[in-house]
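This section describes the prediction task in plain terms. A model, or a person checking by hand, is given the sequence of a single protein chain and must write out its three-dimensional structure as a string of tokens. No templates, partner chains or ligands are provided. The sample shown here is typical of the held-out split.
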Amino acid sequence: MNNFTPREIVSELDRYIVGQNNAKRAVAVALRNRWRRQQVAPDLRDEIAPKNIIMIGPTGVGKTEIARRLARLAQAPFVKVEASKFTEVGYVGRDVESMVRDLVELAILMVKTEEAKSQRLKAEDLAEERLLDLLLPGEKNLEDAKDGSSTTRDKLRRLLRMGELNERMVEIETQDSQMPNMQVFGPQGSEDMGINIKEMFGNIFPKKTKNRKVKVSEARDMLVEMEAEKLVDMDKVQTLAKERTEQNGIIFIDEIDKIASREGGHGPEVSREGVQRDILPIVEGSAVNTKYGPIKTDHILFIAAGAFHVAKPSDLIPELQGRFPIRVELDSLEEADFVRILTEPNNALIRQYQALMETEGIHLKFSKEAIAEIAKTAARVNERTENIGARRLHTIMEKLLEELSFNAPELQDKGLSIDDAFVRERLSDIADNEDLSRYIL
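The expected answer:
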């Protein structure tokens, strides 16, 4: 885990997310506490539970993005789930334990990729030898190989490293992992609990191989991947992935307000409360069975989020409320925030569209007045229709540049400036007409 201070974490989040300082500070402290826990004496370390966070705020204000960027910063397995997708045990649908299984699968993939990278140099050497065998078939295993053949191999090796042979065609053998098509219905969650049908039948059916003719440059990449995969120790990968999941995993539960039981409710409310009670033991800390063995959830960080327009956080069952001790309210976005979102972050929308147009050779420039007009339009449409936060900027930018994007390859004028008059011309009719903006924006 990267050893960032809370201030450094907030600074890193500021590069991608505008505002929401309270939420950033809360997640920064939660992440730093993980590092602090690792420094504590082992007898007390297991007793320190993560302080789970619940984010309250309308859609499109940065709740998911904060959690996703935090996980990337911590190099931690991260999975986002929607609470409304889960159903109470006994009903048809996804069971809540699947979120932990998804997390460990992601951790396996992360660790496997890292291990393959660490074996890259060795894999490249092995791939080079295999390529030379393909270019000089039957030469390597000849015990009485003359000096001439060895010299030929060395010459080919030099040419290969210089890239002189990249266009030559070679035939390599690849495994065809296709299986007979079948669909098996079993108990809920059985596919994740170690009963892997594909793996069971994969050992019964013989693996097919097929020969492919490819260029040397492509063959080298394929052989390096194949050799790196062979060098990876899967037992080590599983052990590391399980540890990373248990110690560093982050689960983001979105739309938690959708399973909050409203007072005086009937019917479906029972199922909502049932989902909460199913989630409770996972958040409290329990062992979830996966095909890689049991995973303890005691130290996984849970971040929940919801708009809470209709329900309130107090509508959640008291036991679940107690497991999310840190509550952060995110601010609705104003016109000034939209201006900052369009220009400040590293992945700002203006930069994205400029980069896209640059691929067509078009240099796109936005005046300050144009950016202000876009922000003003987004704020006005959000007020009059559904408030979808920063996502409104995506719909407005697409509409604004729709004609330009379509005609870009045929345009002769490669330098274009967009001012406030252009923005008003393209958007004024739609923005002013509430019915039109509801359907188009």
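For orientation: DSSP finds 19 helices and eleven strands in the chain.
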